[in-house]
Every structure is written in C-alpha cells, then in structure tokens.
From TrEMBL:
Localisation per UniProt entry: Cytoplasm
Family: Belongs to the class-III pyridoxal-phosphate-dependent aminotransferase family. HemL subfamily.
EC number: 5.4.3.8
Needed co-factor(s): pyridoxal 5'-phosphate
CDD domains listed in its UniProt record: OAT_like
GO BP term (any one): protoporphyrinogen IX biosynthetic process
NCBIfam families cross-referenced by the UniProt entry: hemL (TIGR00713), PRK00062.1 (NF000818)
Entry keyword set: Cytoplasm, Isomerase, Porphyrin biosynthesis, Pyridoxal phosphate
Reaction(s) catalysed (UniProt annotation): (S)-4-amino-5-oxopentanoate = 5-aminolevulinate
GO molecular function: glutamate-1-semialdehyde 2,1-aminomutase activity; pyridoxal phosphate binding; transaminase activity
Name of the featured protein: Glutamate-1-semialdehyde 2,1-aminomutase
Length: 435
C-alpha cells in the first residue's frame, strides 16, 4: 500500500509543492495532504483505505454527491460515443437551455473549460462591448487566476490596483480598481471619479473565497444601479454559487426577488458536474459581441466537450427542488452543531452563512466578517488543529479557513451524524490552539 506520506514525497519531486493547485498542499493547516482514490455519495476514501465524510465536494461541483448513478450513467454513455469531436454537438444546446430555463437573464451562453476562463472572457467582453478599460473588483473576491483579476488593493479608496502575484505587471493590475467588499461609499466614490472609464464591476454573487461573506442588503443592487447609470457592465460571478445556492444560483435568492439582472453571469463548478466545464452567459445584446458574431475573441479546443456536457446536463436535470431543500436543511443542522460545539468549548467565532454555503471565522466580533480586512484579522491559527481533529475523526474539511464547507444531496443522516460526533473534540482543539 502506498501511504499518503509516500505519495506526497514522490509528488513533491515532480510537481511544485507536490500539487496542481496550491491549497491542496495543506500549507495553512500543516501536515500531509490526503490523497483520495475514490468517492461514493458523501464519502471519500484515501490511498490508505480510510473513509471520510467529504465536505469539500471537489470544491463545489459535487452537488449530488460522488458517483451519482444518473450522472455516472450519462458520462458512460457519452464516453462510449467518443470523447470529443471538436465540432458542434447536441448536448451543448441542451445544457445552454437548462441554464437559461433556470436563469432567464442568461439568454445566450458560451461554454468554456474553467471558471478562470469564464471570468477572463466576461471581462474582455465587457471591455469590448463598452470600449472602456477599467474593471472594479472587491478585495477577497476570487475570480480565478487571470492577470488583471489578480490585483490587490492599494492603500486608500480610489487607488488603482497593485499586482496580486509575481508575474502580474503593474500595467495589468493598474486597470483594475480594488475596493473593500460591502463598501458602498467607496463604490460611489470610484464611479464619481472614474465612471466614464469603467467597463465593468465584477463581484462574487455572494463571496465565498474569503470564507463566506454575505452582501449587505442592497449592495448588489447598488452595483447594478451604478453600472447601469454609467454604462458599465455588471459581471455576477456565480462560479461557486451557480446552481448551488438555489436552482437559479444566488441570483435566484437576490436579483430574481429584487427585480434586477446582471449583464453577464459566469458559471463553473456545479455546471460541469465534476468535469471541466464553465460558462459565460448574459443578454443577447452583450453576448453577440463574441466571435464569430462580434469582434471579441474567444476560442477553445475543448469548450462544449460532449463528456463534460453530459455530466452537466445530467447534474442539472437531477438537481430538483428537493435536492436544494435537502442540502439547505443539512447545512442548517451542521452549522448549528458547529456553533454549539464552539460555544461549549468557549471559542469566540462567527458562522458565516448564505443558504447552504457556510464557513467559520474564529475570534471575530459578534456581527461576523463583512470584508477581506476582517477576514484576514481573524484567529486563523485555530483552524489547523480544528481541521486535523476532524480529519482524524474521518471528516474531510476544506484545508483552509477561507474556504466554504460544501454539503451535497448525498449527505444523509449517517454522514451528518459522523460530522456532529466529531465536532466537540475539534472545538476543544480549536480552543487550545495557540498562535
Ligand atoms: C472557483 C472559482 C473561480 C475559478 O474557477 P476555476 O474553474 O477554478 O478556474 C472563479 N470564481 C469563483 C467565484 C470561484 O469560486
């Protein structure tokens, strides 16, 4: 048997940090990354044969749990027909139709391969459609790793962004304005000063990559109002929340009720049902700026791949209202038990929750976390010991305090009980943690 430790040692010689995406290296929680070899329903099994209740869900796609029979069957059928042809294929339009039925503002769709590509394309489209240059984003909102979206906040409100990664040039970052999330007056100031040059505001529908941070009431509406007033596009990044928070994503819990629609949506994660697919979608008017109908270029070898489309179609078809009700209610149970266990252990914390998406922040004020500055100032040192106590007890949490916990339709009472039983000892480990 190959152990996780042996595998990680081999991998570190062959891949930077031993991983293909940084958070998988367990840098912020310490210890040896666990390599999984199979998944079934709410469970994952690692290389050593140990089983875990999975609360990562492949970082979001596994809405239905692992190896859902209908999704697996649809993928098998697609594989039998051939892995891909680089041509049009009937299931592309089927997936596009399923998306539009749920989110009517997604009148037209372009499939891409990753969420990064979706947001990158949405930004190019906004610039191409408006003829303007500047993009406004919020600190702590993650939109993938394209250069211009890896900008960090400068000091002061209306300053232009600084490079957020080595290899991002000042020129690229300087066309991105970075504001604190939920900063209404900062947003108004930026539009007052730069309004004629702003192509787009991009925002996570509800942020969940700095821990979950709910938008304050009216914040998304303000983005909509200001972008409309100044002729900029509103890009609503639903890569994580799309088809997860409701059947119509976070828009279904916000814009649909409040009567607003963004110009562009980006989708990823759930839309591919576990295979690499994402999408940019929006009004016909904006979307037809894309090649070949318009001058904004986007192309790809794999977009619309039939195996990925089959996984996406089967996932959305199986994601019924009952699925969302189930996930919401299980998330409620786990979040309540989490806060009870932490209270019993005397750990100051806030549960950051929007629908079924939630995360925990340690040592925060009673009102919780509202932006990236507050997210970063929490007692994140408490998470490593908490995480490892849960891991030892057979619960696989995201290996970073800044990631949301993902439940699925497959999390039944037995899986949830295992989580609940593990929480008290983990809460005590968090209480005993030292910086
Ligand atoms: C995951 C994520 C992305 C990036 O998607 P990838 O498929 O990892 O490139 C973009 N935006 C948000 C909100 C995400 O959660």
């Amino acid at each position: 048997m190959t152990t996780n430790a042996q595998l990680f040692e081999t991998a570190q010689n062959l891949m930077p940090g031993g991983v293909n995406s940084p958070v998988r290296a367990f840098g912020s929680v310490g210890g040896t990354p666990v390599a999984m070899i199979s998944g079934q329903g709410p469970y994952l099994t690692d290389t050593e044969g140990k089983e875990y209740v999975d609360l990562v869900g492949s970082w979001g796609p596994a809405l239905l749990g692992h190896k859902h029979p209908e999704v697996t069957e649809a993928v098998r059928k697609a594989v039998d027909a051939g892995l891909g042809f680089g041509t049009s294929h009937p299931s592309e339009a089927r997936l596009a139709e399923l998306v539009r039925d749920r989110v009517p503002g997604a009148e037209m769709i372009r499939m891409v391969s990753t969420g990064t590509e979706a947001t990158m394309t949405a930004v190019r489209l906004a610039r191409g459609a408006t003829g303007k240059n500047l993009v406004v984003k919020f600190a702590g909102c993650y939109h993938g790793h394209s250069d211009g979206l890896l900008a960090a906040a400068g000091s002061g409100v209306a300053t232009l962004g600084l490079p957020g990664s080595a290899g991002v040039t000042e020129a690229q970052a300087s066309e991105t304005i970075v504001l604190e999330y939920n900063d209404r007056s900062g947003l108004e100031t930026v539009f007052n000063e730069h309004g004629e040059n702003i192509a787009a505001v991009i925002t996570e529908a509800t942020p969940a990559n700095m821990g979950v941070v709910p938008p304050e009431p009216g914040f998304n509406q303000l983005i909509r109002d200001l972008t409309s007033k100044y002729g900029a596009k509103m890009i609503f990044d639903e890569v994580m929340t799309g088809f997860r928070i409701t059947e119509a994503g976070y828009w279904g819990a916000s814009g649909r009720q409040e009567g607003w629609t963004p110009d562009l949506f980006t989708f990823g994660k759930v839309i591919g049902g576990g295979l690499p697919t994402a999408a940019v979608a929006g009004s016909r008017e904006v979307m037809e700026h894309l090649a070949p109908t318009g001058p904004v270029y986007h192309a790809g070898t794999l977009p619309g791949n039939p195996v990925a489309m089959a996984a996406g179609v089967a996932t959305l078809e199986a994601a019924t209202a009952e699925v969302y009700e189930h996930i919401d209610s299980k998330a409620e149970v786990v979040a309540e038990a989490l806060t009870a266990a932490l209270n019993d252990a005397g750990v100051e914390h806030s549960i950051q929750k929007v629908g079924s998406l939630f995360s925990v922040a340690f040592g925060t004020s009673a009102t919780g976390v509202h932006n990236y500055t507050e997210a970063q100032s929490q007692e994140s040192f408490r998470y490593g010991p908490f995480f490892h106590a849960m891991l030892d007890a057979g619960v696989y949490l995201p290996p970073s305090v800044f990631e949301a916990w993902f439940l699925s339709a497959a999390h039944d009472d037995a899986a949830v009980d295992r989580i609940l039983q593990a929480l008290p000892a983990a809460a005590r480990a968090a209480a005993e943690a030292t910086a």
